[in-house]
């Protein structure tokens, strides 16, 4: 998968490395900004209240 | 190339006619490609889970602390005119718990996730409505995060009997003393929020405070509860001199 992406990036090694870095940063940004905030309430790690509803309300 | 092909085919027990070495290599190439793709996906999943831990335990704190500081400053600005009546608009006051060593925690109404994720403590409106500190009798019940999102009650386990819990409103310091705790209880145990929390050993109505959060750290399996009782109140003076407990 990563080999395939690497082969399909344009330019020489330096340019490819730079593009790869940008892609990685973009993915991390998307994860922190959208994916993790969405996933977090679905996971049972951060319910702090007593509510008698199994933490549905958190 | 052809020799190696024969050798590997012997190992896997599927002899390929010597006349078709190219077909065998392509097939193996596909298998190897699939295995390597699977491996890369596993590595990617591991990295994403690792990043999620970083997000939960660090990044949410950064965001929540920034948000809480801003909200706290707004409340302080509004209070700058001097002591006045109770104000519940953006936060009714600040909780100071010296034993938790985390400075001041803004307290706002409500304990739903959206509010608590902003790095504040919330007082319960549901399932048992919290009393307010100024009420003659009742239980002022609060919840905040143990980890992530400011982790305002992270050190709740450091509280011992007799430790001070000070709540600061616009015009009054409420000084509570811890008298009981429940290191582990069910998340369904809403009785701990009752106006007279019987599990803490109290039988008569009084002015109590209840702190709840999750336990053990990094999970939400159980709830940790600490109870305090009002010891005295102090009027806020012009310089907002804190009570001796915060000295």
UniProtKB/TrEMBL annotation, chain A:
Protein name: Uncharacterized protein
Organism phylogeny: Bacteria, Bacillati, Actinomycetota, Actinomycetes, Kitasatosporales
Membrane-crossing residue ranges in chain numbering: 17-36
Keywords, comma-separated and alphabetical: Membrane, Transmembrane, Transmembrane helix
UniProtKB/TrEMBL annotation, chain B:
Presence of keyword Hydrolase: yes
Record-linked InterPro entries: Sortase, Sortase_Class_E, Sortase_dom-sf, Sortase_E
Keyword Hydrolase: yes
Protein name per its UniProtKB record: Class E sortase
Chain coiled-coil ranges: none
Highest taxon in the source lineage: Bacteria
Transmembrane residue ranges: 35-59
Start and end residues of each stretch annotated as Disordered: 1-26
The entry's keywords: Hydrolase, Membrane, Transmembrane, Transmembrane helix
Source organism of the structure: Streptomyces chryseus
């Amino acid at each position: 998968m990563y080999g395939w992406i690497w082969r399909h990036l344009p330019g020489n090694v330096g340019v490819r490395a730079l593009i790869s870095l940008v892609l990685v940063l973009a993915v991390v940004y998307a994860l922190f900004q959208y994916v993790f905030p969405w996933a977090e309430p679905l996971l049972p790690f951060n319910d702090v209240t007593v509510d008698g509803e199994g933490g549905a309300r958190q | 190339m052809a020799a190696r092909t024969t050798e590997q085919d012997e190992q896997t027990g599927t002899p390929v006619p010597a006349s078709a070495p190219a077909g065998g290599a392509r097939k193996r190439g596909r298998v190897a490609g699939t295995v390597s793709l699977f491996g890369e996906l596993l590595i990617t999943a591991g990295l994403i889970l690792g990043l999620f831990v970083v997000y939960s335990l660090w990044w949410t704190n950064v965001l929540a602390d920034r948000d809480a500081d801003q909200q706290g400053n707004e409340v302080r600005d509004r209070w700058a005119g001097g002591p006045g009546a109770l104000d519940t608009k953006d936060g009714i006051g600040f909780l100071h718990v010296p034993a938790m060593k985390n400075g001041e925690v803004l307290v706002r109404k409500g304990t739903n996730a959206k509010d608590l994720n902003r790095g504040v403590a919330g007082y319960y409106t549901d399932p048992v409505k919290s009393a307010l500190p100024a009420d003659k009798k009742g239980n002022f019940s609060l919840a905040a995060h143990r980890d992530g999102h400011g982790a305002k009650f992270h050190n709740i386990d450091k509280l011992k009997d007799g430790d001070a819990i000070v709540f600061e409103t616009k015009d009054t310091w409420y000084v509570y003393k811890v008298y009981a705790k429940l290191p582990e209880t069910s998340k369904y145990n809403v009785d701990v929020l009752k106006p007279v929390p019987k599990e803490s050993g109290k039988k008569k109505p009084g002015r109590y405070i209840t702190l709840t959060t999750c336990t053990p750290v990094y999970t939400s399996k159980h709830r940790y509860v600490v109870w305090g009782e009002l010891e005295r109140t102090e009027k806020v003076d012009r310089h907002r001199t804190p009570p001796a407990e915060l000295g």
